[in-house]
Write a structure and sequence with these properties.
Layout: H1 44-54
Amino acid sequence: MALVVLSSTPLTAQSTYTVDSTADGGDADTADGLCDDGSGACTLRAAIEQANASAGL
């Protein structure tokens, strides 16, 4: 007899973004997995956009 347990909770990778700018620029490329507003800085807006784009991956 075999027992198979399926979970409805998907496994997701966790990411941490360090906001290092008080500017308000958006993420330059949400597909790259990096928080970068295009100038090399990570703004709060860029971090939120990147986190939303990465959700469920």
